[in-house]
Amino acid sequence: MRSKTDRSPLGHNVAWAYLALGGVMTLALVALRDSDYAALPTAVVGIGAAVCAIVGRLRNRPQVTLPWTLFGLAAVAFLIGAVLRQVLADQPLAPLADVATMSGYGSMLMAYVALLRRRQTSTRSLHEIIDGVILVISVAAFAVVTFTIPTAAALGLSLFSFVQGAYPVVDVLLLFVAVLLSWTSAQRVPSFWLLGGTSTFMFIGDVGYAYIGTQGRLVGSPLLDLPFVVAFTLFGAAALHPSMTELSALQARPVQAWSKARLAILAPALVLPAIIVIMDIGPASSWLGAGAGLGVTLLLLVRAIGAVQDHARSQQGLRHQAMHDSLTQLANRASLVEQVNNLIRRAGQQGDRVDLLFLDLDNFKLVNDTWGHQVGDRVLCGAAARLLAITLPSDVVARIGGDEFVVARYVAQPNSGSGELLAAQIIEAFQKPVAEAETDLVTTVSVGLVRSARVATAEGLLRDADTAMYRAKAAGRGRCMVFDSSMHDSVRHRVETELALRYALERQELVLHYQPIVSLQNGQVVGAEALLRWAHPRLGMVSPLDFIPIAEETGLIVEIGEWVISEALRQLARWRTVGGAAERDLWISVNVSPRQIRDATLVEHVQAELARHKVPADKLVLEITESAMMSDEATSAVLLQRLRSLGVTLAVDDFGTGYSSLGHLRRFPVSKVKIDRAFVSGIEEDADDAEIVRAVVAMSLAMRLDVVAEGIETEGQRGMLQQMGVQLGQGWLFGRPEPAEDCTFVTRQPARLNSYPT
Ligand code: C2E
Ligand code: MG
Ligand code: MG
């Protein structure tokens, strides 16, 4: 595990350098064991350890310094103890050495406890402590039998023997905190292992002293200090190593499983009491062994019960998770389906019904996009709270998608309007604003309602309610629609069309027809509009009005639109090569849908296709309805500007049917306006229509926009429009949309076969 402080290589090096020094001191101790300087190596690493604790604390800047201060104090105390033990050997003040050493242990224990406090505990059962106590009981029993009692027997009952006997007990405690630290540290950094080594060698050293204690001696060979030299060395390196900060950083406890490593420690602890009894080492061993065995067994039981309870709890948690939405804590889809199916079954038996409401927040995406997901999440939680406040405890309330909620109510038969009533209440409640993001947010809700029929399933009800909800949205949001079976048919039609449309492109069922656009002055064809047709194998020629909206909704329009542009340009290129001068000036008009002008690939596609077919950019006109331009002004303005930069002409299609004014359109780089057929067809009979057209033409001309009048069917209309100043016209009077090969307005048609498809 690498940490921030790992970046300083000096930190590592210093730690390893100290380790090397310790190695030298270990060898020195062996060499000097019989000389007067035998205590020197121990003193060097002892002082070193204390210095390392201070330096490490200052250099590495751990979050908490207390453990390292205590470790430093412990090192100093051990050092003093070791020196006193040599100096005061066999003198009356000799126990002072033990006082120092014992304070060292005390300090070390406290340091471990301070580290342990950095391990977050949960309120759950503390399994690691039970495991630790099992270990302690069994090792302590062994230590008492093998060391404490023999030492007491050898030294007689005195303060001396008491202190000597206390060492193993302290060691057992040290072992306890060390394993606890190990079990609660998820990250095993170098400092962790070095500290673990420190405890191990301290333990070995103490066993050595305890052993000579059983023989009635307090001072032995200086080599007995060898483990302590190693321990001091490891400790110094642990304190210097940069990873020490992670050891004392706040950490979550890992899961307290009985891993192989832990079992390797626990299994001997479990058999140790039995061994004590069987080996019958001392007078009290059978009692101690049996007592320890009993204690261990009881603790195992507690541990097992705790583990089973934890398991049950986490199972319950998992089940809750599986059945609930994590954000709102409402039921999720799986749970909803289960509960609704139960309600339906009951209703079937009792002759009652289930009313199911499918809710979708209006404009929730806008909330998310404008104020961010946090506010979005709060709005969803607020919506859940509102629903819970309105509904009955017996209702099922669920969240089954982003901003989709479902309420299901069991309705006893005579109660006719229950679902509608509930929907009305919900819609009203959602009309009240909520204070969010420093403003008052109103997120109205659209509701689809369905009543369970004789044979119903939750999934079926959900599907129908969803359909009805879409109708509610289409009808203007913030309202409720009750499902009726005719909705099914239109949905089916939509789904089928969508599916068929996906294949239409592949199967080359889409074709373009071309309608001439003429100069009103001399009747000369100046351009043509490419109009899409779907040669459906069963339905015949399908009007774009029937399938473009579906293509638009499903996004298929992007792909289809690209094909239209390519095909229209290909056709124009063909006319340009086979035709004469008039064909060279001909431009082609292509319709572009709202979805396409949100798609950045449009620009690249247009550019590539113009180049591919070698058509000058000004011979391509892209027709965009005014509502398409207005619906997302910022995005469209950028995209239209890029198209305009290519040299492409932009036209406003169906002008007059939207809400915008010509002035408003000025922000877009358009240069043509197509006046909608609705006005043109009325201009002869309706004075208002005539006035509107006259005004639009006047203003367009003032803004230097070319005007095309659509849908001219009669000579009268043509005359009036020309009089008003309209230069260009399109309509049945001049020619209907026709396949390229039938376009008589192109003078020299190539052979039919060649024109489509290639
Ligand atoms: P639009 O762009 O306004 O196209 C003009 C529509 O008016 C065409 O209908 C055309 O056949 C019809 N029309 C032309 N002259 C007359 C006339 O004198 N009298 C009458 N009654 N109608 C006339 P069409 O081909 O059914 O297209 C309908 C709409 O579908 C188009 O309206 C256009 O918005 C859309 N559309 C057609 N092709 C495409 C396409 O390739 N892509 C996209 N996105 N939309 C297309
Ligand atoms: Mg058009
Ligand atoms: Mg039009």
Could you give the topology of this structure?
Elements: H1 9-32, H2 40-60, H3 66-87, H4 95-116, E1 119-120, H5 127-155, H6 159-184, H7 190-214, H8 226-240, H9 244-247, E2 251-252, H10 260-279, H11 285-323, H12 333-350, E3 353-361, H13 364-371, H14 373-390, E4 396-401, E5 404-411, H15 418-429, E6 434-436, E7 439-441, E8 445-451, H16 458-474, E9 480-482, H17 485-506, E10 510-519, E11 525-536, E12 540-542, H18 544-554, H19 556-578, H20 581-585, E13 587-591, H21 601-613, E14 620-625, H22 626-631, H23 633-646, E15 649-655, H24 662-665, E16 672-675, H25 677-680, H26 687-702, E17 706-709, H27 715-724, E18 728-730, E19 738-739, H28 752-755
Parallel strand pairs: 1-2, 8-9, 11-13, 13-14, 14-15, 15-16, 16-17, 17-18
Antiparallel strand pairs: 3-5, 3-8, 4-5, 6-7, 10-11, 10-18, 10-19, 11-12
Helix pairs in contact: 1-2, 1-8, 2-3, 2-8, 3-4, 4-6, 5-6, 5-7, 5-10, 5-11, 6-7, 7-8, 10-11, 13-14, 17-18, 18-19, 19-21, 21-23
Bound molecules: ligand C2E and magnesium ion (MG) (2 copies).
How would you describe what is shown here?
The chain is of the alpha/beta class and 758 residues long. It has three domains: 4-309; 333-484, Reverse transcriptase/Diguanylate cyclase domain (Alpha-Beta Plaits); 495-742, EAL domain (TIM Barrel), CATH 3.20.20. Helices cover 60% and strands 13% of the residues. The strands form four sheets. An eight-stranded mixed barrel has the order 10-11-13-14-15-16-17-18, surrounded by four helices. Helix 5 (127-155) packs parallel to helix 10, helix 18 (544-554) crosses helix 19 (556-578) and helix 21 runs parallel beside helix 23 (633-646). The radius of gyration is 44 Å and the shape is elongated. The two termini are 64 Å apart. One magnesium ion is lined by residues 653-654, 674, 676, 710.
